[in-house]
Amino acid sequence: GASDMPAEIWEKVKNHPCYSEEAHHYFARMHVAVAPACNIQCNYCNRKYDCSNESRPGVVSEKLTPEQALHKVMAVAAKVPQLSVLGIAGPGDALANPHKTFRTFDLVAKALPHLKLCLSTNGLALAEHVETIKDYNVDHVTITISAVDPEIGQHIYPWIFHDHRRWTGLDAARILHERQMEGLERLVAAGILVKINSVLIPGVNDAHMAEINRVVKAKGAFLHNIMPLISDPAHGTHFGLSGQRGPTPIELAAVQDSVEGGAKLMRHCRQCRADAVGLLGEDLGAEFALDKIEDEP
Ligand code: CLF
Ligand code: SF4
């Protein structure tokens, strides 16, 4: 709360529902799904669905152009007074679609300058965009980091697309790790609040989570969100060919408890869809689908 952090940080988090546990009772976020492409492959991702960075799989997001996104944000802002944050979190990677992402931020900042801007990325293309992120007044960036050791990362990321070519195996995991660390360091140096999301995959990175927490804290991350792999095959997520399961709530809590003492943990994440609208845990997205809002006077 206000008493345990510097005033300029409190100004940034006090009405952000993900960065402040208190704020999530009173302030709403919305995502616009303007970023369809991705530059890496996570084993748990099924591209038919939203980005498993930050999403509950099941239904495909409504893909929007930046202009359609602005239209939707204005419709939501007019009806949801608690709206304080616009986030771009997929359904692919926000920074694998930089023109769409930054054009959306630009349009929204001009029309609704009171909204905070937030983005979520796998971090591969982050370092080269930090200046732009700063120029567009994006105060909040989430990097999904599920390993800080390429030996572990290679079991999570089968390939990345970087520097005009595809990389696989240990090379892919090493490059992704290096790019994530450089992006994190540059964001922190630029004064941007960074949250780390880690997808907890039992048997793959559960014993590694405390190390991730230590490393990201040392590099200046503000918050660490350990989120469970969602592995319902009916909803299309999968893990390689092995049918990797997600953690039980008890296993998740045990891992979260085991890392206490490093970077501060977020424990109120609701694993939003890439087109979520409303308070965390609430999804008004269907009410604001484009065909609904376009009919209105
Ligand atoms: Fe969206 Fe993410 Fe910004 Fe929040 S979600 S881009 S930081 S505005 Fe929040 Fe949703 Fe959890 Fe993400 S509850 S999945 S942490
Ligand atoms: Fe899927 Fe997101 Fe991973 Fe890209 S970063 S492969 S969209 S989970």
TrEMBL record:
Keyword Metal-binding assigned: yes
An annotated Gene Ontology molecular function: lyase activity
Chain ranges of the Radical SAM core domain: 24-275
Keyword Cell membrane: no
UniProtKB keywords: 4Fe-4S, Iron, Iron-sulfur, Lyase, Metal-binding, Nitrogen fixation, S-adenosyl-L-methionine
Listed pathway(s): Cofactor biosynthesis; Fe-Mo cofactor biosynthesis
Cofactor(s) demanded: [4Fe-4S] cluster
Role of this protein: Involved in the biosynthesis of the iron-molybdenum cofactor (FeMo-co or M-cluster) found in the dinitrogenase enzyme of the nitrogenase complex in nitrogen-fixing microorganisms. NifB catalyzes the crucial step of radical SAM-dependent carbide insertion that occurs concomitant with the insertion of a 9th sulfur and the rearrangement/coupling of two [4Fe-4S] clusters into a [8Fe-9S-C] cluster, the precursor to the M-cluster.
Family indicated by similarity: Belongs to the radical SAM superfamily. NifB family.
Protein name from the UniProt record: FeMo cofactor biosynthesis protein NifB
Organism taxonomic ancestry: Bacteria, Pseudomonadati, Pseudomonadota, Alphaproteobacteria, Rhodospirillales
Gene expressing this chain: nifB
Full-sequence portion shown in this chain: 66 to 362 of 517
